[in-house]
Write a structure and sequence with these properties.
Elements (H helix, E strand, L loop, with lengths): L25 H10 L2 E5 L5 E2 L2 E2 L3 H10 L3 E6 L6 H10 L9 E3 H11 L7 E5 L2 H9 L4 E3 L22 E6 L7 H13 L4 E4 L5 E5 L2 E4 L1 H12 L4 E2 L5 H11 L6 E5 L2 H10 L3 E5 L6 H5 L9 E3 L7 H4 L5
Parallel strand pairs: 1-4, 1-13, 4-5, 6-7, 6-8, 8-9, 9-12, 13-14, 14-15
Antiparallel strand pairs: 2-3, 10-11
The chain binds ribulose-5-phosphate.
């Protein structure tokens, strides 16, 4: 399905209005950088691919910091908490502070806090340690997650899998050890516990786990449970409005002053466009130029560039006299 998006607030790029997306010229990049005071960067495909920093990223971040731009790093990958991502940034030699990081694992915990999730209820986690760490920081009780990685079900006659009636929400994030026990527990909690919420950190179809091929993303984990409960989840990661509103409040950002830079049309660019941000797509991640320019694609960033470090060209430009 092709999702069409409304226009962003970019000065002169195309925005799903019939015109083809435009590769950013040096002038386009300069006016975008001049216009905004903050950049929201997607991580996978923009900053890194798997565990390798994309060429020129450290220098580009340094240049934007020297220009006094606020930088926020936002990822839909829930396998790590914000603290976990700080460790990743540091190990990759990137100079980023804890306060600049926002992950979908955190968004799930922040969402539950925002709705006053009852203190006598707990969360069943299909996902990894990132979600658990963020729930712990909010004091929200949880079960499941990595502890259920090796659980097996043996389907003997008369066997019914017990589940905890105090589970008031199931949070589903990317889980490299998803199994039938977790899917059945999640579906029992959602179907049989009155009022139990079904929350997805994100619905990304594919992701880069290795640089050799694309791998099934959290859309596959959510899809397995959605298929059983026949209910749509509440999505808290990109492109959800909840995440943008929470970021804008937490970081004190004005939407018309933000440029969203991402590699994925249906999460990053849609997130920016629906939220009224300027948008830049990079081709260093999951989106090819052919897919971007395909007539059936209705999600058009204001501009696109090969990779983030294309922005460095504005540094080298001679100053007009
Ligand atoms: O979690 C995922 C797997 O479903 C995401 O696809 C992925 O890793 C997204 O990361 P980012 O938002 O940094 O591109």
């Amino acid at each position: 399905m092709v999702v069409s998006a409304s226009a962003g607030n970019g000065a002169s790029g195309s925005a799903g209005n019939g015109t083809l997306p435009r590769r950013a010229s040096e002038e386009n990049m300069r006016s975008m950088v001049d216009k905004v005071s903050a950049f929201i960067f997607d991580c996978d495909g923009v900053i890194w691919r798997g565990d390798s920093v994309i060429d020129g990223v450290p220098e580009t971040l340094d240049m934007l910091r020297a220009m006094d731009k606020r930088l926020v790093f936002v990822t839909n990958n829930s396998t790590k908490s914000r603290a976990g991502y700080l460790g990743k940034f540091t190990s990759l030699g990137l100079n980023v502070s804890a306060e600049e990081i926002y992950s979908s694992s955190y968004a799930a915990a922040a969402y539950l806090e925002s709705i006053d999730f009852p203190t006598d209820k707990k969360v069943y986690v299909v996902g990894e340690v990132g979600i658990q760490e963020e729930l712990d920081l909010k004091g929200i009780a949880h079960i499941g997650g990595p502890a259920d990685a090796d659980k097996k079900i043996s389907l003997k006659p008369g066997f019914a899998l017990p589940h905890d009636p105090d589970v008031g929400a199931v949070v589903v994030g990317f889980d490299r050890n998803i199994n039938y026990f977790k899917i059945q527990t999640a579906q029992l909690c959602i179907s049989e516990n009155p009022g139990c919420l079904f929350i997805a950190t994100n619905l990304d179809a594919k992701t880069h786990l290795t640089d050799a091929q694309e791998w099934a993303g959290n859309g596959a984990m959510v899809g397995a449970i959605k298929g059983a409960v026949k209910r749509d989840p509440i999505v808290v990661g990109k492109p959800a409005e909840f995440m943008l509103a929470n970021i804008a409040t937490q970081f004190g950002l004005h939407r018309n002053q933000i440029c969203m830079v991402g590699d994925r049309l249906d999460t990053d660019i849609l997130f920016g466009q629906q939220g009224g941000l300027s948008t830049m797509l990079v081709l260093s991640g999951v989106t090819t130029e052919a897919a971007l320019l395909h007539p059936e694609n209705g999600i058009h960033p204001d501009f696109y560039m090969s990779q983030l470090s294309d922005l460095l060209s504005i540094k080298a430009a001679p100053v007009a006299v």
